[in-house]
TrEMBL record:
Alphabetized UniProt keyword annotations: Cell membrane, G-protein coupled receptor, Membrane, Receptor, Transducer, Transmembrane, Transmembrane helix
Organism expressing this protein natively: Nothobranchius furzeri
This protein's name: G-protein coupled receptors family 1 profile domain-containing protein
Transmembrane segments: 30-54, 66-88, 108-134, 146-163, 193-216, 246-270, 282-304
Cross-referenced InterPro entries: GPCR_Rhodpsn (IPR000276), GPCR_Rhodpsn_7TM (IPR017452), TAAR (IPR050569)
């Protein structure tokens, strides 16, 4: 029978080497468990609907939607990774040092690719709004796929090299058994902060500031010309309005992303401790962003609502359903 002190240890048999469990009231632990489980399930489910929608329906195979597909893939993986945070509810890691290192490296990769995809979305909207005459000739589906592939490959390589010591020597930086941490020295921490936050966020803010200024200018121009448009001009007017609407919707996605991720990176920027706890509140807020993105699509994209109805009613199993006009 365990003594009360042994019951507070992650590994009671390793009395002098084990980490201590995080002590919480049972009701609080249950609330955290239910919250994390609900977020994980909702994140995976909603993002799987986005992935199926864009992958299945050919009408949705556009450069912008391929970027949303990439974002949905990373968000869906975040939902799966939240299940590992559930394991850490009591502050103990029971899956071994190698699994810990792989989990944390994968988490860094997914976070980086999400930010990289946000940069690509900002570039896409910048070109569409600021250089509309070049957009359809320069931004093609194939080029977008190539950019997405390069984004994933570069961040996988970058994070693997950055965290190679954590992969080569799993558990090297833990202070006790049951701890799951990733360690970066000062230079590595600054490098990761710059390439994963400061640089991308600066690019996103600069590009979307330009998009906002141009969009407002174009909206005023269209209002002054709407009464005098010809049939040909009406088509151009609708096309331009559609691009501006897409820019505004994706702008909401970017703003929500910044609100959810900035607390985590600001905490990382101001703390003197380079160890990153997987159970921090700021980290959870970072993850919640992956749940919010599909909800934004539900609110603003009619095509997503239509595709969800077709998926849930199993009508996508019908022959030639991929050619359905859901726009």
């Amino acid at each position: 029978m365990q003594t009360p002190e042994e019951g507070e240890l992650c590994f009671p048999k390793l009395y002098n080497l084990s980490c201590r469990k995080t002590t919480r009231p049972p009701s609080t632990s249950m609330l955290i468990y239910i919250t994390l489980s609900s977020i994980s399930l909702l994140t995976v489910t909603l993002n799987m609907l986005v992935i199926i929608s864009i992958s299945h329906f050919r009408k949705l195979h556009s450069p912008t939607n391929f970027l949303l597909l990439s974002l949905a893939v990373s968000d869906c993986m975040v939902g799966f990774l939240i299940s590992f945070q559930i394991i850490l509810i009591d502050g103990c890691w029971y899956l071994g040092d190698l699994m810990c290192a792989m989990y944390l490296v994968l988490d860094y990769v997914i976070a980086s690719t999400s930010i990289g995809t946000m940069v690509l979305i900002s570039v896409d909207r910048y070109v569409a709004i600021c250089y509309p005459f070049f957009y359809f000739s320069k931004v093609t589906a194939e080029r977008t796929k190539m950019c997405i592939l390069l984004c994933w490959m570069c961040f996988i390589l970058y994070q693997t090299l950055l965290l190679k010591e954590n992969l080569q020597n799993p558990g090297r930086f833990k202070t006790c058994y049951g701890e799951c941490v990733v360690f970066l020295n000062y230079f590595e921490g600054f490098l990761d902060l710059f390439f994963s936050f400061i640089g991308p966020i600066t690019v996103i803010i600069v590009l979307y500031s330009r998009v906002f200024v141009v969009a407002v200018s174009q909206a005023r121009s269209m209002r002054s010309q709407v009464a005098a448009v010809t049939l040909h001009g009406s088509v151009r007017f609708k096309a331009k309005k559609s691009e501006m609407k897409a820019a505004m919707i994706l702008g909401v996605v970017v703003v929500v992303f910044l609100l959810c991720t900035c607390p985590y990176f600001c905490l990382t920027l101001t703390t003197q401790d380079t160890g990153v706890s997987a159970s921090s509140v700021a980290f959870l807020l970072f993850d919640v962003n992956s749940t919010l993105n599909p909800l934004i699509y539900v609110l603003f994209y009619p095509w997503f609502r239509k595709s969800v109805k077709l998926i849930l009613s199993l009508r996508i199993l019908r022959p030639d359903s991929c050619n359905a006009n859901i726009m």
